[in-house]
Amino acid sequence: MSSLLLQMALRTESDIFVLRQRGREVATAVGLEYQDQIRIATALSEVARDLVGAVGGADVTFHIAGVEEGRPALRVDLAPLRPLDESRCEPQSGAVARLVDSLELTEDEGVTVIRMSRRVPANAETLTPQRLAELRAQLALSAPASALDELTVQNEQLIAALDEVRSHRDELAVLNEELQETNRGVLALYNQLSEELEETNRGVVALYAELDEKSVQLRAASESKSRFLANVSHELRAPVTAVIGLARLLADSASDPLTDEQARQVGLIRSSATDLLALVNDLLDLAKAESGRIEPDWATVDLRVVFGQLRGTLRALATRPEVELVVEEPPAPATVRSDEALLSRVLRNLLHNGLKFTEQGEVRLHADLVDGRWRIVVSDTGVGIPPELHERIFEEFYQVPGSASGAGTGLGLPYARRLAMLLGGALRVASEPGRGTVFTLDLPVDGA
Ligand code: ADP
């Protein structure tokens, strides 16, 4: 849908001026800005000149189109008086076309027309049918001025356009100057930044060298600690074993009889020495594991066998009638590539702890295959461990304060975690005080 604003005939040279002037008037009336008014007027006069020369003129109509879609445009149709030789008249190509949004040859009710259009900034609300009727009336009233008048106007416009071009050129020169200035600034900044970067890089490199050196020292320190522990505990083992033997001898019925007090004191010596031996053995194990001196003896291990043995050996420890030891049957195929002795050590340690720290309920061993890995879980319904201590219990000698443990060295869990790592797996804990503890040993089915 479009609504007609104005129509006029283009026949002679002087009509070209009139068309130009009327084009400008219509453009002004529909709200196009000054530059656009000149553009459309110029495009019209260029096309009009061609038409007068080639086919003796045209009938020209001005419309407002596209109001319904909310993108109104001023549309001008020039219907040539005689059929156009399209090969000679191509208004849509060239500089004129650039002055408007579209310029095309089109078919309108069987007649070929040249159609140009330019979007207007007004919207559908301002271009109401009533407003368009007013514009139509206004344009019909205004009489076209003479060709000379239009020429004067055109000259003025030309001068203004020239002025504008000149001022644009001056602006361009200023901009160019500024750009060069900015470029110099950027270059200087870039150089400065590169220097700073280089400086920082040197610092980082030095820092890394220092870090490397420190970690070498650290490794050396840790190795000598392990070596010291291994040596000391090894050296202590023989005398402590001797003390235990001697105490047993003293208390033996074949020896001279002891007074009750003496027998009590010898008993104390013996139990202390036994504790000491346990500590020394644990220390030796841990030191060996830390120094990397334990080489797992890889083989295909049947978990059913391991679990069976644990069930047997730990039953003796599960002396409280309120606590049940449940060793579940692992699902088939219950095999894993591992070191049977080391794996048993880890599980025995965890089960032993479970029995130690559970007053009531159960201690359970359970295995599952999840995503191609064994998840072996030791859970209990015991005292539990506060969340903030979940990592600390894996530190050497750490024991949760107030946990009614009795005997213990605080070395079991660090050792168990070491072994788990040696076996290619990991040992994690989840626990809540008062609700029990869950240790999970995660092992790859095919070993490390
Ligand atoms: P130990 O048992 O010889 O004291 P561990 O390294 O095996 O040493 O354990 C460290 C500490 O972690 C224990 O003293 C105890 O406080 C806590 N702990 C370990 N296992 C459990 C468990 N199943 N329930 C509650 N606390 C536990």
Can you tell me about this structure?
The chain is α+β, with helices and mostly antiparallel strands. The protein folds into 3 domains: 2-145, Heat Shock Protein 90, CATH 3.30.565; 147-293, Signal transduction histidine kinase, dimerisation/phosphotransfer (DHp) domain (Helix Hairpins); 299-444, Histidine kinase-like ATPase, C-terminal domain (Heat Shock Protein 90, 2-Layer Sandwich). Helices cover 51% and strands 20% of the residues. It has 8 helices and 12 strands. The chain has helices at residues 13-29, 34-55, 129-141, 147-251, 260-290, 303-315, 340-356, 412-422, and strands at 2-10, 58-65, 73-80, 102-108, 111-119, 299-302, 323-327, 335-338, 361-370, 373-380, 426-432, 436-444. The strands form 3 sheets. A 5-stranded antiparallel sheet has the order 1-2-3-5-4. Strands 7-9-10-12-11 form a 5-stranded mixed sheet. The chain is elongated. The model has no long low-confidence stretch (mean pLDDT 88). The structure holds adenosine-5'-diphosphate (ADP). Adenosine-5'-diphosphate binds next to helix 7 and helix 8.
CATH fold naming of the largest domain: Helix Hairpins
Low-confidence stretches: none
Main beta sheet, described?
5 strands, antiparallel
What is the radius of gyration?
Answer: 50 Å
Q: Please bin the fraction of helical residues.
A: 40-55%
How many structural domains can be distinguished in the coordinates? 3
How do the SSEs run, as a string of H and E? EHHEEEEHHHEHEEHEEHEE
Provide mean pLDDT, rounded: 88
- Bulk shape: elongated
Give the class-level CATH name of the largest domain. Answer: Mainly Alpha
CATH architectural name of the largest domain: Orthogonal Bundle
Alpha plus pi helix count:
8
> How many E strands?
12
**How far is it from the N-terminal to the C-terminal residue, by CA?**
79 Å
